[in-house]
Amino acid sequence: MKVMVNSSSCHGHQMCAIAAPEIFGSDEIGNAVVLITNEIPDHLVAKARRAEANCPERAIVIQL
Amino acid sequence: MADTRQPVTSIHTDYDIFDPAYVLNPVDSWTEIRESKCPIAQTDRWGGSWLPTRYDDVVAMAQEHETFTSRGIIVVPPPPGQTEGPYGGIMAPPITSDPPDHHWHRRLILPAFSPQSVVKYEQSTREFCHSLIDKFIDEGKGDAAGEYAQQIPVRVISTMLGVPVDMADEFTSWVRGVLEQGLTDPELRVASRLKIIQFFLGQLEDRKKNPREHDLMTELINSEVDGKKVGDNYVLGVCNLMLVAGVDTTWSAIGSSLWHLAQHPEHREQLRANVDLWPTAIEELLRVYAPVTMARIVDHDTEFQGCPMKTGDRVLMAFPAANRDPRMFENPNEVILDREHNRHVAFGSGIHRCAGSNLARLELRVALQTWLERIPEFELVDTTDVTWAGGQVRGPRRCLVTF
Predict the structure, then answer these.
(1) What CATH number is associated with residue B230?
(2) How many angstroms separate the CA atoms of B378 and B232, rounded?
(3) What is the pTM of this model?
(4) What is the nearest CA distance from A40 to chain B, expressed in angstroms?
(5) A47 lies in which domain range?
(6) Which end of chain A lies in a sparser environment, N or C, as judged by fewer CB atoms within 10 Å?
(7) How many domains is chain B partitioned into structurally?
(8) Which CATH number do you get for residue A11?
């Protein structure tokens, strides 16, 4: 699994960083930055799914 | 305009957001509207408005900014003789802005509110929360709203704006004048607005003569867009917005959360037992006790979910109602502190997502953590000793507890 953020949809809600701080950080205006650009480790997969489910803009894309 | 004196004939066609029964318990009204044939209620009161209650409808309005514009964002029309927008001649960018200007109006203030930026307020906020509790802890009782929640956000935003923290009580009265009591008292609303503008005019002039280092207002004054300075009206407007938005909203979230925790020892215990629960718990409290409803003005005649909306109509994006929609949230009226799926819209949705959300979260978390650390067991004196304010922002104004 890999994750991406659709930056034109991201409005900086921070739900992803709250659900999965290991995977999502923020840039200088508070929008999402993907910290793990390679395969998401097994122990973080559940958090990645939760981040995707909690984004109010549906800006997180999960690639299997 | 004093419509509240007439009893509401039907929540579907004649709701009154200032009806004390609605302020005290809006949830039952939202449920009734949401599950009816038309989940968007309508009223002629207070200038007339529409009230969507479903998550999808509220979010759609927030997203479709070309139809639902931000030229008016307050839940009632402006006072007689004033133009639309919270501050008459001075707008409140970016909240009153539409694209394309909205983009730079907002872009210039976002860095101050990023998670990395707001972290600098954690320690001083915690110290201040302790000092508030020091004042009443020996009494064995206190007003969680007036003596605690209300005192915190105004001082944090004053620090951020670089204005005198010791003017906190005055700032609070001006803010309540424009956003709370002023909504039903046009004279108070105009007078309070003028005080805010005059105050910031003085602050601006001072900084032009004596620029300050590491000062948000000075930075804004010196900012340029397309090679031109942004201008005084923009800076004044931003200061207005930050003061008003930074005070009433967060205070309400803190007060509501303490009101809840006073009645739920099991949730206090959950938080005490698991410090890692806090981020998720804060989001759940924000979902259930979301304080803010924002309005929009319809740009052109349109049919929205079967409702015939006209140019100039006011719609109330009831984010708190959206957060209770069972289509989006399982057991929506239950506070589940470790709720996994919580796509709440307490901070709105789309391009106007609350710019202050990271600061609000920090204040809410620190205020609750500090309270629970010092006062782990507490309860409401009596549910009748709680008074609620409503309209644009809903939250307790008095919440007496014993411990």
Answers:
(1) 1.10.630.10
(2) 48
(3) 0.96
(4) 19
(5) 2-63
(6) C
(7) 1
(8) 3.30.70.20
